[in-house]
Here is the input.
Amino acid sequence: MTHEVIMPALGMAQDTGLIVAWQKAPGDAVAAGDILFEVETDKSTVEVEAGHDGFVAALFAEAGEEAPVGSVIALISAEKPEQPIQASLSSTAAPEPVVATQTTPAAVPEDGPGDGPKSEPATAPAKKPVPAPTKPGGPILASPKARRLAAEQGLELGSLVAAGVPQPYHVADLETLKALPSAAAAAGGAASAHITARVAKGTFTDFLSWLDGQATHDAVWAAFAAASLRAVTGADALVVRVDHPVLGRSAVFADPDLGPLSAALPADTDAAPALILRDLTGSRITGGRFGAAGAPTLTVATAGDDLALTLDFAPDQLGTDAAIALLEGFAGRLDEPLRQLL
Here is the structure.
């Protein structure tokens, strides 16, 4: 007996699902509770169980392809198939007709007199799915656990894409990510630049009290940082990531400066940040030279009655004059926070 596996509907407005990765290859044994594949929608990445015990007889799509909701994307047979099938949506016009005739494991015709010619998918040797290459700026294929750990550790999955590491990414790939050279080193070993500033923290502290919880501390940091960078670069869209190394957490914001602070909420996006803000105000660290990361990095620390600001950047990320203007603008907003509301 052969069971069909269909692309599930994970949202009311979902028409297709992006297959992030197959956890089983054609011919593999599988249990009903095993994770068969990971699917990504516009809001989440979900691990989908096989639902049946048996063997993977056919996969009708490859990692990196989008399949319509309700379409058959795999077959699970009760017995081990002799010739498991691996097909691609781009090369297979419609797997449904094949499924309709699948009454035996993997629907492989038996050899013998009178048999018709075998179809190409049935005679093709089984192969492991090959992830489709992702264009720069496109979706990054990664498991939910890898995404979560990368965010918690302040790691950029986009750096793996830039380094040519094959997708999809799993937890083990984070070790590869940690070992990658910095963007500055990859650009030829150019030393990162480093400028500092100080501003009295009293006015900013009073401003946070005045907000009275209408906006989170992270949202305020992100909005001030984004506005300062936008004033320098004129960018239409900006993503800012706020890191808390001491607490081991991060939050990402998309264009947090373009609306009221109360509307600045963490965003679910894979886009690489244009600016990173490292919040050390709750620690004993008062500053330092941290080197360039994947984006210009603003570090805020407490030094007595002041906020100590540090901007680390690589020459290919930001020009010197632009960096000075960015830090001056950010310090000015901390000194006169009501500027952000005008």
Summary: Confidence is low (pLDDT under 50) at residues 93-137, 183-190.
